[in-house]
Write a structure and sequence with these properties.
mainly alpha
Length: 161
C-alpha cells in the first residue's frame, strides 16, 4: 500500500467515525420502557403534589367565603337599615322644611347610609373575587386531574421487560 492509499483509507475511517459520532449525538435519546415508566411516575408525583396544593388553596378559599358570606349579610342588613333611617329622616325634614335640627339629622343619616352602602359593596366585591378564585382553582384541579389520567394511561401501556 502506498502512502496516499493509507491516507485516503484513514480519511475515510475518520469521516465515517465523525459522522457516526454526529449521528449518535444528534439522534433522539431512546429510553428503555422501564426508564420511561419511572420518569412518568416521577411526573405523576409532581402533578399529585401540585394537585394537593391546589386542593389546600381551594379549601382555604372556601373557608374565607364562608366568613365573607356572613360579613356580606351583616353589611347588607346594616346598609338597608341606614337607608331606611335616612329615608325616615328625609320624610321628617320634608314635613318640617325649616327645621335645621331635622336637616342635620337627615344629612347625617344620608352620610351613614352612603358609608354603609360603600362598605357593603366592598365586601360583596371581595366575595365575588373569592368566588372567582374558587372557580379558577376548580378549573386548575380539573386540568391537573386530566394530566394525571393521561400520564397514568401512558404508564399502563408501557410494556414491562
Amino acid at each position: 500500500m502506498t502512502k496516499n492509499t493509507i491516507k485516503n483509507v484513514l480519511k475515510n475511517v475518520l469521516a465515517i467515525a465523525l459522522m457516526t459520532v454526529v449521528f449518535v449525538a444528534c439522534s433522539k435519546k431512546v429510553l428503555s420502557p422501564e426508564m420511561q415508566k419511572l420518569q412518568n411516575q416521577k411526573e405523576i408525583l409532581k402533578l399529585n403534589t401540585e394537585l394537593n396544593e391546589l386542593n389546600v388553596s381551594l379549601e382555604k378559599e372556601l373557608q374565607s367565603i364562608s366568613g365573607l358570606a356572613d360579613d356580606v349579610n351583616k353589611a347588607n342588613e346594616r346598609a338597608s337599615e341606614s337607608s331606611k333611617e335616612a329615608k325616615q329622616e328625609s320624610e321628617d325634614l320634608s314635613k318640617n322644611p325649616g327645621d335645621s335640627r331635622a336637616a342635620s339629622k337627615a344629612e347625617k343619616a344620608a352620610r351613614n347610609a352612603a358609608k354603609d352602602a360603600k362598605r357593603a359593596k366592598k365586601i360583596n366585591d371581595e366575595l365575588n373575587d373569592a368566588n372567582d378564585n374558587v372557580k379558577d382553582y376548580q378549573k386548575d384541579i380539573k386540568k391537573k386531574l386530566s394530566e394525571l389520567n393521561d400520564l397514568e394511561s401512558k404508564i399502563n401501556f408501557v410494556p414491562n421487560n
